[in-house]
Amino acid sequence: MLDSIQLLKEARELGSTKTLADVEAILSTYDYPALREQERTRFRVELWDKVTPINGVSPEYILKDAPEDGEIYLVYVDGNLVYLQKHDPDQIGFVPMTPEVALAKANALVDRLVEEAIDARVKNEVLRQLL
User: Fold this and answer.
1) Does the pTM of the predicted model rise above 0.70?
2) For residue 28, which of 53, 52, 1 has the smallest C-alpha distance?
3) Mean local confidence (pLDDT), 43-49
């Protein structure tokens, strides 16, 4: 979620004379749960079956440096593969992931990406209204 004080600071640097109350009033018009739901539809998370080639790359090549007993998750945005994660990204080394951990990590990543996308869009729209 955006920081109204930071937004006001940026707006003032661009020449705005609006107040913090103005920023908060504009921000209050946004329905963040609806925006999250809408943005989330752009993403798809799945566990890789370890047999299907990915973007023409053979499974054998992809599996070369993956932990043997771990799951690999894929994250798609607008139907395009943008993340392929072979090990737990929050652990040091190549720590394998269970299916539950892999899906939880993938969904946490998507949640962060959704928030970043919403914040970027709303920030731009709010700044335009403040100028």
Assistant:
1) yes
2) 1
3) 98
The DSSP code sequence of 13-43 is HTT----HHHHHHHHTT--HHHHHHHHHTTE
Q: pLDDT category, 1, cuts 50, 70, 90? A: confident
The alpha carbon torsion through 93, 98, 100, 103 (nearest 10 deg) reads 50
Helices (H), the chain: 4-13, 20-27, 32-40, 59-63, 99-130
- What are the residue ranges spanned by the domains of the chain? 4-130
Number of Cβ atoms within 10 Å of the Cβ of 42 = 14
Query: What per-residue confidence (pLDDT) applies to 69?
Result: 92
* Chain centroid, CA 59 distance in Å: 26
Which residue shows structure tokens 């993340």? 83
